[in-house]
Amino acid sequence: MNTHVRTTIGHSACPHDCPSTCALNVEIIDGQVGRFYGAKDNSYTAGVICAKVARYAERVHHPDRLLKPLIRAGAKGEGAWKEASWDAALDHVAEKFIAAEAKHGSETVWPYYYAGTMGLVQRDSINRLRHAKKYSNTFDSFCTNLAWTGWMMGAGALQGVDPREMAKSDCVVIWGTNAVVTQVNVMTHATRARKERGAKIVVIDIYDNATMKQADLGLILRPGTDGALACAVMHVLFRDGMADRAFLAEYTDDPAGLEAHLRERTPEWAAAITGLSVAEIETFARLVGTTKRTFFRLGYGFSRQRNGAVNMHAALSIPAVTGAWAYEGGGAFHSNSGVFKLDTRLIEGREMAVSGIRHLDQSKIGRILTGDREALYDGPPVTAMLIQNTNPANVTPEQRLVKQGFLRDDLFTCVHEQFMTDTAKLADVVLPATMFVEHDDIYKGGGQQHVTLGPKLVEPPLGPRPNLYVIEELAKRLGVANKPGFGLTARQHIDIMLDKRGLGSFAELQEKRFVDMQPPFEDAHFVNGFGHPDGKFRFRPDWINTPAPNKPPKSMGTQGDYARLPAYPDHVDLIEGADEIHPFRLATSPARSFLNSSFTETPGSLKREGRPELLLNPLDAAKLDLSEGDVVEIGNNRGEVALHVKLFDGVLSGVVIAEGIWPNSAHLNGEGINTLTSADSPPPYGGLVVHDTHVWVRKVDNVPGNGSGRGTGERLEIRTLLN
């Protein structure tokens, strides 16, 4: 009997939608993955990864993983399926696409994807099929628009201070991101600065989350009021002589105009808007004003408001006033996505793109699938979809419209997935997908500076196939396999891309594992000038004409109520504010054990998260006669969601938090939290406003089920309107 167990270590990168893009060491035991570890020799990952990825074997070996192609055998959403061969399933998909195109034209087909994998080959190859077939384009509005737009308005380039410089700071300001939960490596470098330099950590957020608990100074403010805080801080900096006037004169566009504008933006003014005290605002301003090596780590969360681009620009303006950019360990960082410059034109088939093909906003999928003419840009209805790397029936706003659209009899949907997600349940064809250790790909980390290879480490189970396989096979059946970019393996695509960037080949990068692309100090700190043509940081942004990575095409035009955007950093009351009917403001903040809708199926994550809950201030609960564990229904004109109450004094009165994107079925009435969120476009370039929602709260009786949090889909009986 052979009892020898062979264990090796493979190397990869975390593929999920997280700025950290951690370099991984993967334990491989007799051809199967075991434990996952952070690579200690990667200077950003530094050996630390989040607990959910450390347990990734739970996903790879999960008993509910999809293993065979499935074709719907009953009514949509009924859950009746018949197994099919890959050839039969793909033939069926191609036939449906061809029939849809014959009836409505090519734009009726909408390939739909996002960031379930961040690998450049497996994620982006769907665009090659899109362009080859002249299917509808997608306007990416999910994640980065508001934050990147606000950053670009000020800095003019999507890059910043080396994030590893946090360890060399005397003050680290973590603003609008729960880094312990969403970017654990931020804390690695921030806590090193505290340990080695005695640095102070400031955390600014809307509730007392896991990151706030690590802070020396924690500031809890009302959602959507970050611009007011930033303006009051800059008011104090000018008022008390802490503004770096030499830096301002050399590197900024209009410091005198900014100072005049801020004279009325006092701490008292901001306190009334933000819910902070005057003392808290003054303390924060003095700290950053007297600490030149202050590092502003600006996240995504605080930008996901209708005024989110303004909030980002205002917060980014503070280090320009203090002159912190001039110092190692000082300045600001949001994303390094602009530094990599990897050429993905062949992967995406961009040379086949033609003008005149419409763009559809991915956030408005509910409106699009229910025939909203404005959302469809007066084009044909969407009657066929291929969905990879995203779960729109769970993660997109206005869920009732989304579900209504997917249930249309004249819509054909193919979903390529790893698990039976909320979206897969509504599909006509479901194809099983590989996981990242089972295929080749390459990754770039926007939250850091490395390009990291993710080679295939193990064989997948019999059945699942990579995204690239699906795109290639559909291209053959749809008559475009002879077009540029098709017929290449993932490794060949990576070889071409690396060679164009001067980074060698797949084999060479496999030996190195990752390559550091961090720009030199002078570029990262904008010593040679900011990214605008005049080299100046802009306090007076051109909200309409400034280039940005997510700027909508001309056919879509400027988005939202852009006429109200301010001339200087400011608080703009564009948010969906509380009112008499909707007295609470809701944010859908990330849960520690989930990542968007991923990891909601793994036993470890489910055990740690428990059930969907609403974090409610005890003072509000007392007024509403609510106790711990009571069931409430929260809602607005978009719908209602039922979940349990968790009393929590770390959230301000009038604010409620629902952590995580739980599956819709995990809620007591079977409807997920994005039933409540809006697909409205924020100015100026669009985006997602999932933390900008007003709601009412109603107590309910006659709770269906056993109270475990698993929904039955039954309507709850409303007892009392609480407002």
What does this structure look like?
It is a single chain. The protein is an alpha/beta fold. The protein is 28% helix and 18% strand. The chain contains 24 helices and 26 strands. The strands form 6 sheets. Strands 20, 21, 22, 23, 24, 25 and 26 form a 7-stranded mixed β-sheet that branches. A 6-stranded mixed β-sheet has the order 5-4-16-15-14-6, with helices on one face. Strands 10-9-8-11-12 form a 5-stranded parallel β-sheet, with helices on both faces. Helix 9 packs antiparallel against helix 12 and helix 9 packs across helix 13. The longest helix has 19 residues. The C terminus is likely disordered. Belongs to the prokaryotic molybdopterin-containing oxidoreductase family. GO terms for molecular function: iron-sulfur cluster binding; metal ion binding; molybdopterin cofactor binding; oxidoreductase activity. This is Dehydrogenase. Pfam families: Molybdop_Fe4S4 (PF04879), Molybdopterin (PF00384), Molydop_binding (PF01568). InterPro entries: Asp_de-COase-like_dom_sf, MoPterin_dinucl-bd_dom, Mopterin_OxRdtase, Mopterin_OxRdtase_4Fe-4S_dom, Prok_Mopterin_Oxidored, YoaE_C.
